[in-house]
Design a protein that fits this description.
This protein is α/β, with parallel strands linked by helices. It contains eight helices and eight strands; from the N terminus they run E-E-E-H-H-H-E-E-E-H-H-E-H-E-H-H. The strands form two sheets. It has a five-stranded mixed β-sheet, sandwiched between helices. Helix 1 runs antiparallel to helix 2 and helix 2 packs across helix 3. It is globular and about 65 Å long. The model has no long low-confidence stretch (mean pLDDT about 90).
Length: about 290
């Protein structure tokens, strides 16, 4: 029995004994209780759980599958018979938990990743005048999504002057987003990793700074086709097919990333939570079930 007293002021936190059990109403599991013989604090196995005090544990994994399968928050709430506010709160919980699980999964591949592809997907924050950039890194050999980061960027092209007039100067946080992305993948990939990307002007600087021994290949961007909502390219051979196909999967399975949809991101933090949920589902469920063509 490796339980410790949760009371921070307890002088002997390891001096605990079993103190009965109870059947949890939410999922009908039998939970062991404990009592500290030093301070008298009573606690249980559930005290140390990430879902501590949650009343609807049964819907956590079904909700995760719905959110990673193209369903909106409202439709997920309707299908599960719960309130939309509950779904919003559970999205934050699932995002935090999936981030931890994704990091633990990456540690198992440390030093074994030799080919990666990097790209950026553009979406919006409630309006096309407030764009967001989703930076993605994919393992070319295993097709695993290694890292996903969200950062706000100013409007560009013919919308830039309308955005400046309506919302004022918008801060460009793409540099910070790429910094977080490379800080995540640098300890995991091989020191002499092969990096493939398009000709984005910021990629070479980050590759040379974080992966000085890496070989960086850049390819000219091609026009997108209708399939994949513009992420798949109109070429016979696409050297960045793995990352482009992954972006197309994100468009198809994360409802708020679909180009023509009623569901848009109101808060970039919730988009990050939603993406982390999909990354976990994709890496740990879809790839292992071979539902994705390899």
């Amino acid at each position: 029995m490796n339980k410790t007293c949760p009371n921070p002021s307890c002088a002997f936190p390891h001096f605990v004994i079993r103190d009965g059990h109870f059947r949890r109403k939410d999922d009908s599991k039998v939970i062991q209780r404990f009592r500290c013989k030093n301070c008298g604090t009573r606690f249980s196995n559930a005290t140390f759980s990430e879902a501590y005090r949650q009343k609807k544990r049964r819907v956590n994994f079904p909700l995760l599958k719905l959110l990673a399968s193209g369903n909106s928050l409202r439709r997920s709430a309707l299908l599960l018979g719960i309130h939309r506010t509950t779904v919003e709160r559970k999205l934050s919980f699932l995002g935090k938990k999936c981030r931890r699980l994704n990091q633990e999964s990456l540690l198992k591949l440390k030093g074994r990743i030799h080919n990666i592809q990097i790209d950026d997907l553009i979406t919006k924050e409630n309006s096309k005048l407030k764009p967001l950039s989703v930076s993605i890194c994919v393992d070319e050999n295993r097709r695993r999504i290694l890292a996903v980061e969200v950062s706000q960027i100013p409007a560009f092209g013919h919308l830039s002057r309308f955005a400046l007039k309506k919302y004022g100067q918008r801060k460009d946080e793409h540099f910070e987003g790429l910094t977080r992305l490379f800080q995540t993948i640098t300890p995991i990939v091989s020191s002499e990793v092969l990096v493939k990307s398009d000709e984005h002007q910021r990629y070479p600087g980050f590759v040379s700074a974080y992966l000085p021994k890496a070989k960086h290949l850049t390819f000219k961007s091609e026009r997108g086709c209708v399939a994949g909502q513009g992420e798949l390219k109109k070429v016979q051979f696409d050297p960045l097919f793995i990352v482009n196909h992954t972006c197309a999967l994100l468009r198809a399975n994360v409802n708020r990333l679909i180009r023509k949809t009623w569901c848009t991101t109101k808060d970039p933090k919730r988009l990050k939570d939603h993406l982390d949920v999909f990354v976990y589902f994709y890496n740990e469920v879809l790839l292992k079930m071979a539902l994705t063509p390899l």
